Amino acid sequence: MSGEEFVPLSLTPMLIGVLAAVACALPGNFLVLRKQALIGDAISHVVLPGIVVAFLITGVVAAAPMMLGAAGAALVSVVMIEAIRRLGNIEPGAAMGLTFTTLFAAGVLLLEQSDTSSVHLDVEHALYGNLESLIWLDAVGWSSLLDPLALAGLPPELGRVVIALIGVIGFLSLFWRPLVVSTFDESFAQAVGIATNRLGVALVMVAALAAVAAFDAVGSIIVIAMFICPPAAARLMTNRLEHQVAWSVVFAVLSAVLGYVFAGYGPLWLGFDNAVSAAGMIATVSGLILALAACFAPHRHRSGAPAV
Amino acid sequence: MFWTALTLQLGYNATLVTIGATLLGIAAGVTGTFLYLRKRALVSDAISHATLPGVGIAFMLMVMLGGDGRALPGLLLGAAVSSWIGLLCVSWLTRFTRLSEDAAIGAVLSVFFGFGIVLLTVIQTMGAGRAAGLEGFLLGSTAGMLFNDALVIAGGGALTLLAVLILRRPMTLLAFDPEYAASRGVNVGRMDLAIMALALAVTVIGLKVVGLILIVAMLIIPPVTARFWTERTDHMVLISGLCGGLAAWVGASLSAVAPAMPTGPIIVLSSFGLFILSLLLAPNRGVLAVYLRHVRFQRRVHMRQGLLALAQGQPIYEAFTVRLLKRAGLAHADGVPTDDGRARAAKALRDEKRWELVRADQAFESAAALYDGLRDIETVLTGDQISEIDQRIGGPQGVTS
What is the pLDDT of residue A285? Predict the structure, then answer.
């Protein structure tokens, strides 16, 4: 395929998909290790009511208020889960399920009741995203990458995902040691003076940041899939955290690129003439990678368990 | 209008849908109780999301075979098969790899759901317009439901309920003590599978009404609500079924009145309303009850300490204690005891001395174990025992010069 076709139509969606996948997979490593994988699930559900409330308050579909609204919703859900768990003495899984379904239901209802027909905001969009539509119309070919005029026409989602990714990387590198210590041995972390509770909340908030930025571009399916599948597959590849993080990034990039290519060109190869959902395909590919890892990865068994 | 819907007077179909949803709500509440007690509430999340590819494939197969792609029984069958596969994936991942259950659940739900979305986009491009109904499975819609569909839902709900009634004994046993259940001859693995199968049945039947994203709530919220009201499993099952049924009934009625409102969210929110009420008001486990208990306890501690201080002639600086004593007519505002207060204080001091002897004496071991600094000694020992202790303490003695 030539540059004239690839750069405007496929480069930016693919890039956004890759960046969003990596931004989610990085904090996902810690969520999976801390057995909080489903927090990612919960966050990606509550992003919807956050965005809807932000829209209802401001009346515009703009990036900043929506990011704030979604982050606020993530915070509300974390507080709500914790409150229900403590006040009602309810097991965490049930408290989580209760919280995110309720908030999601409230979001859907608000969305249906308010007049959002004029703007691009609906439940389907929230679920699938619109990766395919994030095209770069100003580009004419590879040369556009050096053309400031054309670069100004890049989809704004790209900038947001880049910022989110920088935020995630910044947080992880700044708090790497405390995070690692508190993930593997919480009481030791407390003993050496790490505020584990606050660190836990901060991790969730960073995950929420990644979720919001990714959600904006690619919808909530990718968010859940990328939080869990690449880190889970990476966990089966190695016993070292640094390597696991590296593997998870590789898997995330692989899922995003392959998923996008299969969604865009797979049906053409099979003789159909319409593309399928890229977000769904990326999630599917990440699942296939996890399945392969679960069958063949070197460290797939629990340590100590006999290799069957 | 809402009232006519609640009392089932809004036409034949609406009535049928409401009854079907209510039966489904009851079945979900009852089934969810066992899921919750087994601490596997979120497995239902994986089950529900994993139905989507099945729905898509069933639709495509039915269209390919020349039938109507939207025939509900076929779609539900497809949903059941694919969510069963999802369930097997979760248990396989947890058992044979090092991944924990939550990671397995998250992976399965997101991948199956993503694949389902891919299939939906395929369907959109192949069948012209006929796929329109499939989005309804995401959030649920009872609008435009056919008579046969309502019949399937009502019948399925009733059958699930029946199955739960038959299996409730072994399931209760399993939820509390798997080893004991195994020793009584319950096949634990198969029973666990049965609980999951029931949850799966509820999920699949509820797809059309509540939608696959929110059906989880019908399995989770009613049991959590019911847990506040009782400590007994059989009661919990009943209350949970009641809550589920009530929420579904109100939700279905509301959405019969306003067809634009999706049924699922309304049912979930009514269910959540019941939960909040229970969280606040339930006796014993509710927030209000716990708070009142705390306040009462605090008062007893302050009262006791205040009386002991009065008896020993120590000044009381704690404002709350003084206020309590004054309100009870035992002390003046400046902390000086009234006659009544002096008497009660002397009694408190004597009780303290009695406890001291009781706790020092091996013979009173069982009574001493109940000492917590607040318990009245009369509630623990008989009058005879107390007078025996009093003899050991002896009466007031003069000071010899």
Answer: 94
How far out from the chain centre does Cα A283 lie?
11
Nearest CA in chain B to A36: B102
Buried/exposed B341-369: b ≥16 CB within 10 Å, e otherwise: bbebbeebebbeebbeebeeeeebeebbe
Name the amino acid, one letter, at B184: R
The closest of B385, B216, B396 to A42, measured between CA atoms, is B216
CA B378 to chain centre: 39
Summarised one tens digit per residue, pLDDT across range B55-69 is 989 988 888 887 776
pLDDT digits (tens, 9 = 90+) for B96-122: 888 888 899 999 999 999 999 888 888
Residue A55's pLDDT band, with cuts at 50, 70 and 90, is: confident
| Nearest-CB residue to B106 (from A37, A109, A302) | A37
User: Nearest CA to CA, how far is B67 from chain A (Å)?
Assistant: 22
pLDDT tens, position by position, B123-134: 877 754 555 567
- A287 touching chain B per CB within 8 A: yes
Chain A residues touching residue B98 (CB < 8 angstroms):
235-236, 299-303
How wide is the angle at C-alpha A32 spanned by C-alphas A28 and A35, nearest 5°?
A: 140
Max CA-CA distance within chain B?
116
d(CA B36, CA B31): 9
Contact A235 B99 (CB under 8 A): yes
Q: Which domains does chain B have, with CATH numbers?
A: 2-263 (1.10.3470.10), 288-393 (no CATH)
Angstrom distance (rounded) from CA B325 to CA B302: 9
DSSP code per residue over A148-216:
HHHHTTS-HHHHHHHHHHHHHHHHHHHTHHHHHHHHH-HHHHHHTT--HHHHHHHHHHHHHHHHHHHHH
pLDDT higher than threshold 90 for residue A60: no
Cα A262 to the chain's mean position, in Å? 20
pLDDT of residue A254 exceeding 90, the answer is: yes
Q: What is the ipTM of this complex?
A: 0.89
Residues of chain B scoring pLDDT < 50 = 128
Tell me whether residues A84 and B121 touch, CB distance under 8 A.
no
